Amino acid sequence: MSNFFTFKTAKNKDHLLSSVENERDHVGINLSNKTIYKQLELIQLTIEDLMIIRTLQPLVSQHLEEIVEQFYANLAKEQSLMNIINDNSTVARLKKTLTNHIFEMFSGQLNDAFVKQRSIIAHVHVRIGLEPKWYMCAFQDLLLSLIDMIDQHTVTKEEFKKSVSAVTKILNLEQQLVLEAYELENERIRNEAEEQKQLMKQEVSRNAEELAAVSEETSSSLQAILQKTQEINRLTDSSSNIAISTEAKSKDGQNRLINLEKIMLDTQLNMKKISKRNGTTHFDF
To answer: Would 137 be classed as within a structural domain?
Structure first.
């Protein structure tokens, strides 16, 4: 038997399970999820086991503080677990939560509320990043603490065996429900991530198509701009040629006028010379 701690209460002289039949009307199994009934059958958890668990509840309540203290003393050995706790809550707050949770576990009632609470626990564990292996380790420590408690309060071997068997079954069911919820939550997250991945692929594909369309439109625009530029260049060249031709013609006309003026001046000089020689009247042009 483990020696994690010593309970303050010595072994009772009375049989621990002497009043177990009194709990028959206070326990029950009422689940909408029919698969869980098969799980109960496989681990052989019966109404009689729930009666024993219900009978143990007052004893568990007496030693809850010691059990919870031992639970978190063991967690403190793994620094990564303490980091998770400190990042998301406080040890004091979680101790209170665990105290309520363990007490409720020994209610002897298996119903949809019981299952829902285990699902909530799993969702929180996934959210804060607590790996299933650490959850399993923590529950093994809790089981050993409960076995220690039962050992110190049972009189006969048969009583001890029945009590430990019932407690082991309810903790086993607890782990099944939480780990299944773990997997469902992780699957939901994976599916959500896959959906986001597909949406991203579609968005990238749509953006690529839009970019291709814009690129094609831009290419057409550039082609049109190039054509306009070529037209402007042709017009510019044509204008330049006209200007050059006009300038040449202008210079040619100017030269013709200069020549004509020179001819007229030469003619006038010649006429004056002739007039002087002949003694005729002088005409000015």
So the answer is: yes
What is the domain extent for residue 94? 20-202
Scan for tokens 């409720």, then name that residue. 104
pLDDT at 172: 94
Question: Which residue, among 28, 22, 181, 188, has the nearest Cα to 109 in the 3D structure?
Answer: 28
Asked if 153 contacts 40 with a C-beta cutoff of 8 angstroms, the reply is no
| 111: three-class secondary structure by DSSP | strand
pLDDT category at 245 given cuts 50, 70, 90 is low
Summary mean pLDDT of the chain: 81
Task: Please give the tally of structural domains in the chain.
Answer: 1
Q: Which residue has the tokens 């009590």?
A: 163
Q: What is the pLDDT of residues 265-282, one digit of tens each?
A: 776 676 666 666 665 444
HSE at residue 231, side-chain half, CA atoms within 13 A, is: 6
Burial (CB count within 10 angstroms: exposed 0-12, middle 13-18, buried 19+), residue 270: exposed
- Per the listing, tokens 């004091």 go with 92
67 assigned to some structural domain: yes
The CATH number linked to 75 is 1.10.490.10
For residue 148, is it within any domain? yes
